[in-house]
From TrEMBL:
The chain crosses the membrane at residues 6-25. Keywords: Membrane, Transmembrane, Transmembrane helix. It comes from the Bacteria. This is Uncharacterized protein. The keyword Membrane applies.
Length: 255
């Protein structure tokens, strides 16, 4: 019995040691591959932090670039076909879109300086656009923003259901609709305020859906009144539908 236990311990130790060596080599190879990719693509010798990629297999890398215009921290991922993908261009384009759209809306007097624009470019746009990253990155506006760009506008004010507020929504839509496929409006009460359980938001899209109207569906304040729907968070139900005046829309099944 003692011999069997000793043998089992030895075998287990050998297997564990072999697994450790294999994992160390695998990790080292992943780091070297990512470092070579970063050097070739962005001409930087970046340190790579690795973590296990439980979804794709292998390792996800985190890198920090120091050279402009891409200075910042990004991730790297290896797909099943062995290709490496990162989120550098998507992040760069999001910053560009946020800056330019904010400047445009502020200059037109539609947004206040402290109000916020957030843009999102889905992962994979850089691959589809086949953008060169050197020496100058391709602008998001040189890809297909009508397909790829969605925008969130944070109005730092309570929703009081006024015509002035509704007109501001229409003004934003008209100003940026050529560049986006989806717009999400939020009203959080005050600059820097805590949005938890107080946020109200509404969405519009390039194409009409059963829930969200298209840009073309809302040309006048009367169109917004006909839509008459907000969404919000509260402490009990988390997600609630509201009318423009702030009253909840009751679930027909609970009546």
């Amino acid at each position: 019995m003692i011999k069997k236990r000793l043998l089992a311990s030895i075998v287990g130790g050998v297997l564990a040691g072999g697994l450790f060596v294999y994992t160390t080599l695998e990790k080292s190879e992943a780091r070297e591959t990512y470092m070579a990719y970063v050097k070739e693509t962005y001409n930087e010798q970046a340190d790579i932090e690795l973590s296990r990629d439980w979804h794709m297999g292998g390792y996800i890398g985190e890198m920090t670039l120091t050279k402009e215009p891409f200075a910042g921290t990004y991730y790297l991922e290896t797909y099943g076909d062995g290709s490496i993908h990162d989120n550098v261009l998507e992040t760069y384009w999001e910053r560009e879109a946020e800056r330019t759209i904010h400047e445009r809306l502020v200059s037109e007097g539609i947004l206040k300086e402290e109000e916020t624009v957030r843009a999102e470019v889905p992962t994979g746009v850089s691959d589809d656009a086949q953008a060169k990253v050197s020496p100058t990155p391709t602008s998001i506006y040189e890809t297909n923003p009508k397909t790829y760009l969605d925008v969130s506008i944070m109005f730092h004010e309570d929703w009081n259901n006024t015509d002035e507020q509704k007109q501001r929504i229409l003004d934003v839509i008209r100003e940026i609709e050529p560049d986006v496929y989806w717009i999400h409006f939020s009203f959080d009460g005050k600059p820097g305020g805590n949005d938890d359980y107080t946020e109200r938001y509404m969405m519009f899209t390039r194409e009409a859906s059963d829930i969200d109207p298209s840009f073309l569906d809302v040309r006048m304040i009367e169109d917004l009144n006909a839509y008459d729907r907000l969404y919000g968070f509260d402490e009990t139900t988390f997600t609630t539908e509201y009318r423009f005046d702030g009253t909840p829309i009751e679930d027909e099944t609970t009546r």
